[in-house]
Amino acid sequence: MATKLKPVDVVTVGVGLTGTILAKELADTGLKVVGIERGRWRDTDPDFAMPGAHDELKYVIHKELMQDLSKETITFRNAMNETALPMRQLGSFLPGEGVGGAAVHWGGLTWRFLPWDFETKSRTLARYGAKQVAEECTLQDWGVTYDELEPHFNRFEYLYGVSGKAGNLQGKIIPGGNPFEGSRSKEYPNPPLKTAYSSTLFKQAVEKMGYKPFPVPTAANSRAYKNEYGATINACVYCGYCQFFACEMGAKASPQTAVLPVLMKNPNFELRTLCNVVKINLDSEKKRAVSVTYVDSRGREFEQPADLVLLTSYVFNNVRLMLLSGIGKPYDPAANSGVVGRNYAYQTNGNVTAFFEDKVFNQFMGAGALSMMIDDLDGDNFDHTGLGFIGGGWIGAASSGARPIDFHPVPPGTPRWGGEWKKAMARYYNRAFGITTHGACQSYRGNYFDLDPTYRDAYGLPLLRMTFDFRQNEYKMSDYITKKAAEIAKAAGASRMNVNPRTGKYSIVPYQSTHNTGGAIMGADPTTSAVNRFLQSWDVHNVFAIGASAFPQNGGYNPTGTVGALTFHALEAIKTKYLKQPGPLA
Amino acid sequence: MDKSSGRRRFLKSAAALGAAIPAGAAAQSKPAPAPHADHDKQHAQHMRAAATAARPYMFLSQTEVAFLDAAVSHLIPKDELGPGAKEAGVTYFIDQQLFGGYGTMAKKYTQGPWPEGTPQQGYQSPLTPAEVYRAGIRDTNEYCRKTHGKTFDALSRAQQDEVLKGLDAGKIELEQVRSQFFFNMLLNNTIQGFFADPVYGGNRDKAGWKLVGFPGVAAVYTTFIEKHGVPYRAQPVSIADITQKVAQVDEHGHAIHVMLDDKAGV
Questions:
Q1: Residue A499 Cα to chain centre, angstroms
Q2: Residue A288: which residues within 8 A CB-CB, separation 6 or more?
Q3: What is the mean pLDDT of chain B?
Q4: Mean pLDDT of the region A514-533
Q5: Cβ-defined contact of A88 to B168 (cutoff 8 Å)
Q6: CA distance A336 to B188
Q7: In this complex, do A408 and B123 lie within 8 Å of one another by their Cβ atoms?
Q8: Which value does ipTM take for this structure?
């Protein structure tokens, strides 16, 4: 029997990137906010301290900072006619666990989705007509435009101290930045990071080819920076233990560096760790959430009443809690009706490894997002007529920290073990770098989430079931941009290369990216979206689902910058509209 | 049933245990040139020598140690470039991994049912990694006995190589575990043991890091990252070097690397 607690104004389910920002801003207005987090408290000191922070086995292989699957996982299958089986160990994607969530171990690439990304459907139909769109593709507009989100991108970039170079400042194209980005009202708060050798070679090669290179905007700060909350993010030292790791320097912006030092001092905020929310309880008409039920680390069950419930977990748990709690109609792919679980999408990545005979790169130095890139082949930045696909992706040379368990490339034709492998691996460890093709993924009728009929979590509740595979649109896109990446590697002087576009069935085994999207998508139409343009549930007006769960399909960029902008966008609607007059906002 | 092979296995295993000692001895003969008080240095070296000399196997039997010593010496062989996986202590690393959280599927989802699934669905074995090794080594030895009349460790190098290739290609059928599943686990763990921080028992004397020129625990690279094309050649630093004060650190705990003066790298 659950113990009923004293009511509060706001509950955030999850205390990561979105939850900390919302909690900070709403606690500042005088509301009582409780943050409920399934994992433990973690902070730069002492949890991420040297020298233990530089341990590749612990963090990359054993995934110290990531989700404990023994308690909860997802099930996966490629298609509806297969039996989904549990993801027993982490691989393809790496959700976080504990305070700060995945924003503790993220790489720090902080993009603004392109104006086109928010209007994928209407702009594709307008430019190419319906024939360009694959048959079962359920592409949609977001119900919000880039221009509406622009101030919120600014807020997030200034909060996280993003380091980069504007390419389009108030409509004016600025040399050295990304000329394809949407018009921005302000320059980045910090200048770009320094430039690695691989980035310089990449830059020289793509300039020869007529592309427009620029340094990637990154949340590893290029200099010590104090944000609007008064929190200080330190300067990156290029140690190369960044993505998959926490930052011992407090130089990679995260909830720990940018928000929590201030939030934890606010008496209106209370953090409850090692507490797992299992249900959102609704009123008898299922129009309003009245409380959340959670189980603590001693097995005690509590009911926490709240006026506002913010789902601020990773994509999977935002969707799963809605399904477990009866918020919104579950998606039915056979009838293509219902909304919760609809439009699950991912990232379509390929890569080229470029090998050199006469150059060394020291690729073990770097930062998660230290890279030079081009955006010429992203979104609709190029003419897709006759190509047979929509979307694209960025191509870039990253110096994100080449630690040898994970990075020991060998040229094509080398055996995978033995003396010959050892010689090739030793020779090329410091004479190779990777060029990534980071592609979009459209949404399709058969790619979706629902509840698994067989497998359960540690609390006896059904796991979330993922049904997903790539489609022809994605294979063609990846093939197209990965071939361009191979041309770039050749122009950069590579003697040999491995070229790997995305091919074959999607596999949950090899790491690809923690860029899962959709399932509780936003939109202007309640029959095809789970949340409205303010990320508010169409059905239960005091529940907002914040995160990449709201993306109707995935763009070519890493999602975090856009997740940050959506967070401030929803926050503005809550503060200026919802709190004054609670009810549906759209 | 086969006393002589039991005795041979014991002797080989004792040799494997003994092989742990030279790593500590090597550390003593090549002290870090960083300026420290002699006392600190001696203390740290003593600690390291003690740590490497008295390493009991916690999970693996002597038979399994003999098998793995032979197998990993093929996966990453000793050659003119330097030590291989066996010399780097990879068997001991695997022992420690199998005894710990990795071997017992900690933080992994272990509830059934357990149908085999598709390759895209990943690890679906009801066996833990520790159990996979136990079954895989036993079955491979059984295959070797049937085919060659000896356990794997007693075969010739050429025969061992052939067996490993058979496992890798899935051409050898094992009874309790899929051969490729076992082989891939062994290969992945061998590479991990060769390159992981020496605190885990492998990468002895930082053999893996020295081979590729990886500096281990990082220094502040702010002033070096834009020295393009210049090899960064440092004596690698491990976590224990810092906790035992063999290596110096800056105010944030980053290693202060001692640079090598050789011209290798290009």
A1: 25
A2: A282, A540, A541, A542
A3: 86
A4: 98
A5: no
A6: 43
A7: no
A8: 0.97
CA distance B54 to chain A (A): 23
Cβ–Cβ gap A73/B109 under 8 Å: yes
Contact check, Cβ <8 Å, A405/B213: no
Nearest residue, CB atoms, B222 vs list A89, A238, A506: A238
CA distance B18 to B56: 11
Write down all domains in chain A, each with its CATH number in brackets. Answer: 1-106+254-346+443-469+511-586 (3.50.50.60), 175-184+192-218+236-247+348-439+483-504 (no CATH)
Which residues numbered 146-165 in A keep a CB inside 8 Å of some CB on B?
Answer: none
Which one is catalytic: A152, A384, A438, A515? A515
Pairing of strands A301-311, A342-345: unpaired
A51:B191 CB<8 A: no
pLDDT of A53 strictly over 50: yes
How confident is the model over B203-254, as pLDDT tens digits?
999 999 999 999 999 999 999 999 999 999 999 999 999 999 999 999 999 9
For residue A40, give every residue at least 6 positions away whose Cβ sits within 8 Å of its Cβ, in sequence order, or none: A98, A99, A273, A274
Distance CA B206, CA B214 (A): 9
User: Residues 63 to 122 of A: which have CB under 8 A from any B CB?
Assistant: 63, 68-70, 73, 76-78, 82-83, 85-89, 91
Q: Is B65 helix (H, G, I), strand (E, B) or coil?
A: helix
Distance CA A157, CA A115 (A): 17
Task: Give the rounded distance of the alpha carbon of B261 from its chain centre.
Answer: 28
Our CA-based measurement puts residue A511 at a distance from the nearest CA of chain B, in whole angstroms, of: 12
Question: What does the pLDDT average to over A205-210?
Answer: 98
Task: Please report the pLDDT score of residue B55 as a whole number.
Answer: 77
Residue A257 carries which DSSP code?
I
Which candidate in A38, A90, A364 is best for mutational testing of the B interface (most B CBs within 10 A)? A364
- Please tell me which residue of chain A has the smallest CA distance to B239: A51
- Closest chain A residue by Cα to residue B120: A507
Q: What angle do CA B213, B217, B218 make, to 5 degrees?
A: 80
Residue A116 has pLDDT above 60, yes or no: yes
Q: Phi/psi at A394 (nearest 5 deg)?
A: -85, 155
- CA–CA distance, B187 with B189 (Å, rounded to integer): 5
The Cβ of residue A171 has, within 10 Å, a number of other Cβ atoms equal to: 8
Rg (CA), chain A: 23
pTM over the 0.90 mark? yes
- The alpha carbon of residue A143 and the mean position of all alpha carbons in its chain are separated, in whole angstroms, by 20
Measure the CA–CA gap between B174 and B166, rounded to whole angstroms.
11
* Cβ contact, residue pair B253, A505, below 8 Å: no
Place of tokens 């040229």: A411
Helix, strand or coil, per DSSP, at residue A351: strand
pLDDT in tens, B17-57: 433 333 333 333 334 444 445 555 565 555 555 555 557 99
Active site residue A515: yes
Nearest CA to B210 out of B76, B87, B82 is that of: B82
pLDDT mean over A477-502:
98
Residue B2 confidence (pLDDT): 41
Give A 472-511 residues with CB within 8 A of chain B. 505-509
User: How far apart are alpha carbons B29 and B23 in whole angstroms?
Assistant: 10
